[in-house]
Every structure is written in C-alpha cells, then in structure tokens.
C-alpha cells in the first residue's frame, strides 16, 4: 500500500470483501416505505452470510422492520440504516489502550493462538505507543518456541525498543519478573509481554498464565493492567470460540482484530462486540508498522455496510 494512502482508505480496502459480499446480497431490494417479511428475511440472511452472526442479524432485522423509509427503501437507504445499527453495537466497545498505570510500567499481556498475527501485532502496538511518546519494552514470554523469541527480537530491533528474553523452554514468569524490574529501573511506560499461543493443552496454558499473574502481583498488585487477545479476522466465527476459551483461561480484558486486509469475514468484529461486549482496542489492516490503529466504530460500520 502506498505511503500516501489514508487510514480510511486502508480500512475500506481491508474490509472491501465484507462490504461487497453484503452489497451483493442486498442488491435489488427495493420497497416503498416499509420492507416486507420476505425482504427482511433476505437482509437477515445477507447479514449472517457476512459473518455478522445470527444475533446481530436478528437485531438489525427487527430495527429495519420498524423503520419507515420516507423516500422509499432502496439499497442506499437500507445500507445507511444497517450502518447506523452496526455503529450502535460497536460504539460502546471502542476503547483504545490508554497508558495510565501508576506506578509505571503498564503491563500488557498479549495472548492469541499461533498464527493469529500476535508477534507482529506486538511490534505494531509498540510502534503506536512510541508515536505517542511513550517508552516501550517487550518481553519474550512465549518460551515454548525458539522461533517466537527470535521473531520478537527482530521486531524489537526494527521498532527500536529494548527486549527481555530468556532461553527456549525457560520459565515465562521469571522473564516477566526480570522485564518488570528492568522496565521499572529504566522508567518505561508500557511493557508488552508475548505469551504462549498454544491451546492444545488449556490446563498448561492456564497454569502458566496464573503463575505469570502471581509473579506480577508481587511486583505490582494492579498488574497485568491489560490482557489483550489478538484475533485473526480470517477465522470468522472460529474467532468467537477463541474469545470464549481465552476469556475462561486468561481473563481477557480487550481485543485486537488483525488481518482485516482482504478477508470477507470482517463482520465477525460486530458479532464479537454483540456477543461479548469486550473492548475492541485496535484493528490491523496490513503488514506495515503503521497498519494498526485504534478502533473507529463509525468508520468500520460504514465500511461493512458499504456506505462511502
């Protein structure tokens, strides 16, 4: 994507397939002032096919059934009404991560299955905080895979932030302990901790995260301040199952949705907001460092509904 492309354009580009799919399914629906049941069925089906989920689709259907379209219900009027309903669902959950911890550092545990874009999201988050003039440090708490440690080191160098690492197979809690001490000594504002992404053994992951929490609690009773789940939008409805599991295992406090660049399943954002009500901190729409930004509910609602 060219340097001059605006964030709005990038979001439109990233969610284009979702809005196109919805647009195709809404095409040709025209009514006078009220939509009939068959048309409402069609719209509800279109919303479900766009990964917004049955609960959201039913809610929007009910709202459209009440709507009086004074100038007649054409595709544009329906899309505008859909956009407004989606925005109502998304606005309450749009909450950027604010660095407010005192004493510093603010400890942000980042979790997510392997392949979700977790490591690159950590780098993008570090870059974003740097742009806001915060001091950032990374901690390589995913000691289960040597590749994860190496990858995070590469990103730390690229972003220009310090990183605390340990040996492969080392104790993540002791790395987090060392990182908090180092961050405190260096006056760091935000400590971003990578954690293991394996879900095959929930008990093991739960025990590991519980130990990290215990160690953090000894250093600062408030820590971790955030437990952020990174979700891959291309997983569609499977992303919702991940929220369910990680909420139970890790006490998730907020979400970041990645890989919105080109997937047709961006509607899962709306399904997640409706079903779980967890804060959505940011979305990622590409590979570049500045391709992660705070979640803008109105923009995303307009894009999904295809309202330019």
Structural write-up:
The protein is of the alpha/beta class and about 300 residues long. The chain contains 12 helices and 8 strands. It has helices at about 5-15, 15-25, 35-50, 55-65, 75-90, 120-130, 145-160, 170-185, 200-220, 240-250, 270-275, 295-305, and strands spanning about 105-110, 135-140, 165, 190-195, 225-230, 255-260, 280-285, 290-295. The protein has an 8-stranded mixed beta sheet, sandwiched between helices. Helix 10 (about 240-250) links the parallel strand 5 and strand 6. Helix 2 runs antiparallel to helix 3, helix 6 (about 120-130) runs parallel beside helix 7 (about 145-160) and helix 8 runs parallel beside helix 9 (about 200-220). The chain is elongated, with a radius of gyration of 21 Å. The protein starts with 6 loop residues before the first helix and ends with a helix.
